[in-house]
Amino acid sequence: MHSAERNRETAVAESSGFTMVYLFTTFPKSTETFMQREVRAMLARGVNLRVYSLLDQVGDFMV
Length: 63
Hints:
Shape: globular
Number of domains: 1
Strand content: 15-25%
Largest sheet: 2 strands, parallel
Distance between the termini: 24 Å
């Protein structure tokens, strides 16, 4: 997804009051720090966010 498209979708998420959901096989995963940064960025922007992991956590994730 391009940056402009992501920014537009984030603006819609912030203004509409809907909840964005991330569904991972495992989260957090130490090899996928980019996803942890993305989750933190969405939370910092005020997006109502839910994160679900299908399997057990494999590490700690601190917001």
